Amino acid sequence: MIRERRSKEKLMNYYKKFIDEGVMDPNVHPWVAESWEQSKELGITSQVMPKLVKLSKDELVRRQHLHHPAMDYLNGLYNETREHFNVYNLSLLLLDQDCYVMKNYALPFFQKSPGQLEGARLAEEDIGTSSISIVHEHKSPFLLFGPEMWIKECQDGDACSVPIMVDGQLVYIVTIVSVEQEELPHSAVVSLLLSIRYAMEQHLTMLAQLEARHVILDSVPFAVYHIIPGGDVVYSNKLGKSRLAGIDAVGTKDVVANLNDVVLNYRHTPLYKGFKGIPSYNKEVTWITQRKTYEDITTVVPLEQDKAVTSVVAVSLPIEDLRTLVAHAVGYKARYSLTSMVGETPVFITMQEKAGRVARNNHHLLLQGESGTGKQRMAHAIHQASGRAAGPLISLKCGDILPEVLEEELFGSGEYRDESRPGKLELANGGTLFLDEIEKMPMHVAARLANALKTCKVCRLGEKVERGFDIRIIAACDSDLKRLTEKGAFFSPLHEIISKSMIRIPPLRARREDIPLLAEHIICELAEQHNMPVKELQSEAKELLMSYEWPGNIKQLQGVAEQAFFNTEGNTIALKDISLLGETGVSTAWKEDKDIFVEAWKVAGGNISRLANMLDVSRVTLYRYLKKFGLDKE
């Protein structure tokens, strides 16, 4: 609040009347009157400056470091007007939001050297009424005349204070004390302070916004650069700095070495075109340096002034980071954990414990077991328990595709620039590549894979550019891969690489006691997935499941459990609800084909009643077909 000049004599009379008689004159400014009343209540002496509360030396240093942007800025403003302050005997104070003096410029409040006052608190509870206390309370500029000061020792000078507000919050108070009141118009002091206030608020607001932008830019998975003509980088975010450090392009502060000096193909990049006013969006770019070749997806936007390019902004996403993002976006991550694998038999516990140990190392791994034993689930569980869990899990079934397609899937294709794409080895970078049915991998593909794993470098088909990668291979084989290798049916060097660690997954018939647990676990998962009640297996149904040989292992058990779960009314699965042929059942072809009939009989374990239930016919009908096919019912 800016006030007109008041009669010092009248103001002094108001003050004495209040101090001596406790009577408040109605002409006293309401804010001053309020503060006088509060000062009196607090029992603050009105004669001389009391001993001030001060920060410790270490705490003052800490706060000054915290507030250095504001201090540096006010230093600059003061240095420009220092002569003005000296001529008119003005003092300038910067206080924090708690009224502690952070910086004292010139002879201060009151006639104390800077060392005496910095770190001191000048709040109302310390010195009573002052322009500082009024501004702290009301968050508005205020000019206080000498006789209105609470302490008589301070009444020789007028004081004007302004709040520095950022985002609606008081962050600082700036105060000017004028001892030679008659020499300098109050309007000049007020105007100076209001100018300082505006400039500081604008500056600090801008710094706060810039700090927020820096935090945002340092958090995004992109490298961001601001580059001026000639190739000098005047700004880079955290990721950008780390990439520049990798090519020895680090200079001082925010300015780094000239990209034209460190990027060998600079004139063939979108940056060079950007300075000609040509923008580029999401372009795959190769950056060649003395130390390394980088690939990323780059966007370059020219910044123009008066139709001339003054600088460019470049945003790039490293290819390896993009692959990781894409891999996670499309679900290339582990769906199972080691704890999701169910079993209590010694053979299962031994396998599970070994898997936990193997997961913690970084060796390539071979999983061996019959079809349907859960090798894929095991691969997911090991990946999730490994140090690569944050990376992608990429799967490729070697027996499902033609050899030439398999090679392209593994290594990628670069025969045509517009169609260049990474293979599974690159997509799995930083994570795990699961190769199922690896025994079906052709020799020439296996040889190329072995070489890539040894060198940790891969070339896309049709290209000569080598790209580094870091992956773990988990391979799965339904048969004995060592025996196949000894027979020459599998590439020996690849077998040697992937079999450093090996886990044998037992068939279901080797862990019969786990079958009821597995079936119940499958049923619980189905109930949860489909928001249905859990169904209970009767003991007779469990015995039937345990008596079967399960040539299809857990995969077959999954199909049987699913059929029973969805086709059983009520919440109990009985013996009659179990069809050991699984989800598809048996067609009527068994009536004409002896081999199909025999296979169904084997599935039923040679039990006539069970087979009759499976085929939904009477025992008499079964005896007739046994006779037809020349089979003994025993």
TrEMBL record:
<keyword id="KW-0805">Transcription regulation</keyword>
<dbReference type="Pfam" id="PF25601">
    <property type="entry name" value="AAA_lid_14"/>
</dbReference>
<dbReference type="InterPro" id="IPR002078">
    <property type="entry name" value="Sigma_54_int"/>
</dbReference>
<dbReference type="InterPro" id="IPR058031">
    <property type="entry name" value="AAA_lid_NorR"/>
</dbReference>
<dbReference type="InterPro" id="IPR029016">
    <property type="entry name" value="GAF-like_dom_sf"/>
</dbReference>
<dbReference type="InterPro" id="IPR025662">
    <property type="entry name" value="Sigma_54_int_dom_ATP-bd_1"/>
</dbReference>
<dbReference type="Pfam" id="PF00158">
    <property type="entry name" value="Sigma54_activat"/>
</dbReference>
<dbReference type="InterPro" id="IPR027417">
    <property type="entry name" value="P-loop_NTPase"/>
</dbReference>
<keyword id="KW-0067">ATP-binding</keyword>
<keyword id="KW-0547">Nucleotide-binding</keyword>
<feature type="domain" description="Sigma-54 factor interaction">
    <location>
        <begin position="341"/>
        <end position="566"/>
    </location>
</feature>
<dbReference type="InterPro" id="IPR003593">
    <property type="entry name" value="AAA+_ATPase"/>
</dbReference>
<dbReference type="InterPro" id="IPR009057">
    <property type="entry name" value="Homeodomain-like_sf"/>
</dbReference>
<protein>
    <submittedName>
        <fullName>Sigma 54-interacting transcriptional regulator</fullName>
    </submittedName>
</protein>
<dbReference type="InterPro" id="IPR002197">
    <property type="entry name" value="HTH_Fis"/>
</dbReference>
<dbReference type="InterPro" id="IPR025943">
    <property type="entry name" value="Sigma_54_int_dom_ATP-bd_2"/>
</dbReference>
<keyword id="KW-0804">Transcription</keyword>
<dbReference type="Pfam" id="PF02954">
    <property type="entry name" value="HTH_8"/>
</dbReference>
